[in-house]
Amino acid sequence: MKSKFPKDFLWGGAVAANQCEGAYNEDGKGLSVQDVLPRGIRGQRTDVPTEDNLKLKAIDFYHRYKEDIALFAEMGFKVFRTSIAWSRIFPNGDDEEPNEKGLAFYDDLFDECLKHGIQPLVTLSHYEMPLALGKKYNGWMDRRTISFFERFAKTVFERYQNKVKYWLTFNEINAILKAPFMCGAILTDKEELTESQLYTAMHHQLVASASVTKLCHEIIPDAMVGCMILGVTVYPLTPSPDDVIKTMLRDRETYQFAHIHARGEYPSYLLRYFEKNNIGVDITDEDKEILKNTVDFISFSYYSSICESANESAKMTGGNLSKGFINPYLKSTDWGWQIDPKGLRYTLTKLYDLYSLPLFIVENGLGAEDVLTTGENGEKTVNDDYRIAYLNDHLVEVEKAIDDGIPVMGYTSWGCIDIVSASTAEMKKRYGYIYVDRDNDGKGNLERYKKKSFYWYKNVIETNGESLKR
């Protein structure tokens, strides 16, 4: 079957600085919120970095990026999504001057990508705010954090304007309501935060996102700036109208963020929610003007779907930050994430129907406990047919969406090389095409080995999707 993927489709993979780089205290880098989260999203933070935090060394991408970029190039990547660690550039977040060694590292990284014909897709803030901003200002609770983010963004836009043409502002920006410390450096315990405080922090991030979108367009006129949301496909558990209404309300929790980025204003239902629940958010006239700086495309993560129900006795499932009810028609991963390729097509369709902007799938993949084996020729590999099946089936649904007329810019599968998990801070939950020799105890020589999926994805890219099994 002839491929429906456009010739300029951006095939690639994605990581985050805090999950791959390591070198947490080298070359002037300050501490980030991730450096005190040794157990991931669901764990408790510590006062100082502890040796059991695998992210402190991660997979040592900071020192081995040339080797890894060469492997991505061997697969044929057109794009590589990564993030800039804010605390590498401004160690305390509010510093007057940037850290030159941090800037130089990303110069070298982006140069290496471009040398291999790979376009960087850069996230400005991917769950790695400077910890000092939390301690001094309580993170995004303080409006002054907007100006610190603007300074950071302006610095990197000017520095990399000839190297980076694709930018994302905040990773999964809707997640701040679920994980305020990790996503916003808010040190106040979540249980003590009021809705007014949470939505105030959210508002500050949204204003900052729109402000730096304007900045990017001014500094790099040919750049494209996107928002990035945690994509949660939600179905009614039953045809009951109560379940359908519950699903509608749950959808709004996700799409209100895309709405503000794409349309430049708060949706009426969110303003009404503030009013009905006495939620005080200081939305100034200046803020309203800034929010009108809309994005060029919408990007999102997609791993699974959930169901919603008014019947609270139904069985629960969920991913990192999204709990829902079990869909009896779907299978689940070892971590309880339900596998739903068709849900990706549904999400693409819904987003485009709502906002009519190009879409970019910047996270999708299967986390599994891979086993390194020795092949017939003595080479070490992983026979990850389960991952190939997952990715194949999702990409087939992406192709169907494209054939429906939906403009999909590209696809960067998550954790294209094994990295430390965001949800559990473990190594055993692996997503990559490349196995990294490191275990949950931090042991291993960090050697890289190509999995079976490495060659599968290489073929997918070479054929622009024609090799997919439909």
TrEMBL record:
Active site: 363
PROSITE patterns per record: GLYCOSYL_HYDROL_F1_1, GLYCOSYL_HYDROL_F1_2
A cellular component term, taken from the record's GO annotations: cytosol
A Pfam family reported for this protein in Swiss-Prot or TrEMBL: Glyco_hydro_1
GO molecular function ontology, one term from the record: beta-glucosidase activity
SUPFAM superfamilies per UniProt: (Trans)glycosidases
One GO biological process term: carbohydrate catabolic process
Transmembrane regions: none
Keywords for the protein's UniProt record, in alphabetical order: Glycosidase, Hydrolase
Family note: Belongs to the glycosyl hydrolase 1 family.
NCBIfam families: PRK09852.1 (NF007356)
Protein name: Glycoside hydrolase family 1 protein
Species in which this protein is naturally found: Congzhengia minquanensis
